[in-house]
Amino acid sequence: MAAQGRYMDALKLIKTENPFPAVCGAICNRRCEDACTRGRVDEAVAIDEIKKFIAAQELNADKRYIPETEAAFSKAENMKNCLVIGGGPAGMSAAYYLREKGYPVTVFEKEKRPGGMLLNGIPSFRLEKNVIDAEIEVLREMGIEFKCGVEVGRDVTLDGLRAQGYKAFYIAIGAQGGRMAGVPGEDA
User: Fold this and answer.
1) What is the pTM of this model?
2) CB 28 within 8 A of CB 48
3) What is the pLDDT of residues 5-51, one digit of tens each?
4) Distance from C-alpha of 172 to C-alpha of 55, rounded to nearest angstrom
5) In the predicted structure, residue 88 carries a pLDDT above the cut 70
6) What is the rounded distance in angstroms from the CA atom of residue 180 to the CA atom of residue 35?
C-alpha cells in the first residue's frame, strides 16, 4: 500500500494491530529486519522506515486517520461505561480497542497528562513528546475521555466509580520501578 501511495490505507492496516505506530517507529530496534529472509537475496525490507513514514501522517492533524467506532452500543440501556485506570501504553491500548468496538471509555491517569512510561521513561531524543501527543490526540478524537491528576484509591474509589455508572474496569497501573543494567557500581 505504501509503495502504491495509499498511505492512509497503510496506516489503517497498521492500526489494526498497533494503535501507536509513530511511537513504535521512533523506538523500534528493527529486530525483524535482522531476521528478514529478503536479506539473503539483496537487503532486508526496511519495514521500520516504511512504518515510520506511514506513521508520520499522524503527526499532521489534517492527515490523521481516526478509526471508526462501532455503533453497536448506541442504545442507552446497552451502554457499558468502561473505565481504564492508567494512561500508559497498556491502558491507552485497551481504551483504543474498547472505543473502536463502540464502548464509551474514560481513562483515569494519576499524572498530569497521559503517556505513562512513553512520556516519563523514554528520553526526548529517542521519542519526541509531540509524537506521543499526536497519537493521544487520535484517542481523544475517537471520543475517549481522559481525566488526569486523579488517583483511583486516593481521590476516587471503585465503589464510587461504580455508583457513577462504570461497569467495566481495566487496571493498567504500570510498573514504574526501573531495572538494573547489570554493570559494576550501579548500586553506588
Assistant:
1) 0.84
2) yes
3) 998 899 999 999 999 988 888 888 888 888 888 878 888 888 888 88
4) 25
5) yes
6) 28
pLDDT tens across 95-146, in order? 999 999 989 999 999 999 999 999 888 889 989 999 999 999 999 999 999 9
**Cell output for 32:** 525483524
CB 139 within 8 A of CB 66: no
Q: What is the mean pLDDT of residues 159-187?
A: 86
- Other beta carbons within 10 angstroms of residue 94's beta carbon come to 20
SS (H, E, C) the chain: CCCCCCHHHHHHHHHCCCCCHHHHHHHCCCHHHHHCHHHHCCCCCCHHHHHHHHHHHHHCHHHCCCCCCCCCCCCHHHCCEEEEECCCHHHHHHHHHHHHCCCCEEEEECCCCCCCHHHHCCCCCCCCHHHHHHHHHHHHHHCCEEEECCCECCCECHHHHHHCCEEEEEECCCCCCCCCCCCCCCCC
Unique residue bearing C-alpha cell 471509555: 105
Category of 85 on φ-ψ map: left (φ > 0), alpha (ψ -120 to 50) or beta: beta
Cross-strand partners of 147: 108
Note the pLDDT of residue 178: 67
